[in-house]
Amino acid sequence: MRREDLRTGDTTVPPKRLKVGFVLARSFTLSAFALFVDTLRLASDEADRSGRVLADWQVLGSTRHLITSSCGVQVAPTSDFVDPSRFNYIVVVGGLLCVERPVDQETVAFLKRASIQKVPLIGLCTGSFILADAGLMTRHETCVSWLHAKSFRERFPDLPVRSDRIFNLDRQRGSCAGGSSAADMAALLVRRYISREAERNALEVLQIEKSRSPADVQPRRPLHENYDDARVKAAMITMEQHLEDGISIPALASSVGLSRRQLERVFLEKTGMSPAQAYTRVRMERAKSLLAHSRLPMIEIALDVGFENASHFTRTFKRLFGQTPSQLRAATVGVH
């Protein structure tokens, strides 16, 4: 597959091996890196032998010093910065945004050289922030986690960003929200460059039923992220922590230092809902996510979000979303 086919998805002339170079930031996210590279490993050979038959990868670095992940596990680079054109993709794995210099200047220079040579660059997790800092996301739409969308907009107000999808492949750039979507993105590359069978083999070993596409929506954006008031946010987070067992409105008000009447007033002013209505919305948004992304029976979902029976849950869901839980699940399955 030619690099320009990143845009078209043409798979008529795959290369002998899919070659990926990884750049790890200081305090990188280990899970995103591990899921991506293990998808390549499992797709590369048969019977889980870890042979690099159909794919190859290197961890690139300006030094061979250990790179510490955000969880404390360290990874050693396996290669210096070689000619970027040796790789089909360069994947930058980001991590904690509070790190001032996640990569050094030599790394930035390498990424710019890769861009000049038309090697596609992928930002994994917050790796897209590193690419944007280097001026390498111009004219490309960046996909980030809903958790980091606000930070991206503040730091790069002129760059288009979205937090509704799990990953994006846009011409010579890719970006990924991180977490389990790293495996989905790697699986797409495996399917394009190697084969659907290789993709299926990798996902089966990883115990992933099926890969998701770039069109799939990020599983859940907590409702409290829609509001700026600290008291509303704190109350909604508490609601999310008490979906099954519930918490009374007076106790909720007390948890954020307000009386019940004060909490009612704040919620109506900031959200247009009463706390009770907001609580129902939080429960239903969680149920909506479970319906779309799990096969749990309806009664289990109802119990998980604090309802005693499926019929009450169904009535409330339909009143809020205009369709029954079963209808939503059927429509979601149709999309996938």
Q: How would you describe this protein?
A:
Strands 2-1-5-6-10-9 form a 6-stranded mixed β-sheet, with helices on both faces. The protein has 2 domains: 18-206, Class I glutamine amidotransferase (GATase) domain (Rossmann fold, 3-Layer(aba) Sandwich); 222-335, Arc Repressor Mutant, subunit A (Orthogonal Bundle), CATH 1.10.10.60. It has 14 helices and 10 strands. It has helices spanning 5-8, 30-44, 105-116, 127-133, 149-155, 181-193, 196-205, 230-241, 249-255, 260-271, 275-293, 298-304, 310-321, 325-335, and strands at residues 18-24, 55-60, 67-68, 74-75, 89-93, 121-124, 142-143, 161-162, 167-170, 173-176. It is globular and about 65 Å long. By secondary structure, the protein is α/β, with parallel strands linked by helices.
Biggest sheet: strands side by side, in what order?
2-1-5-6-10-9
Helix share bin: 40-55%
Count of individual beta strands: 10
CATH superfamily of the largest domain: Class I glutamine amidotransferase (GATase) domain
Mean pLDDT: 89
- Kindly give the count of domains: 2
The rounded Rg comes to 22 Å
Count of individual helical segments: 14
Q: N- to C-terminal separation? A: 26 Å
**Secondary-structure content class:** alpha/beta
CATH topology label of the largest domain = Rossmann fold
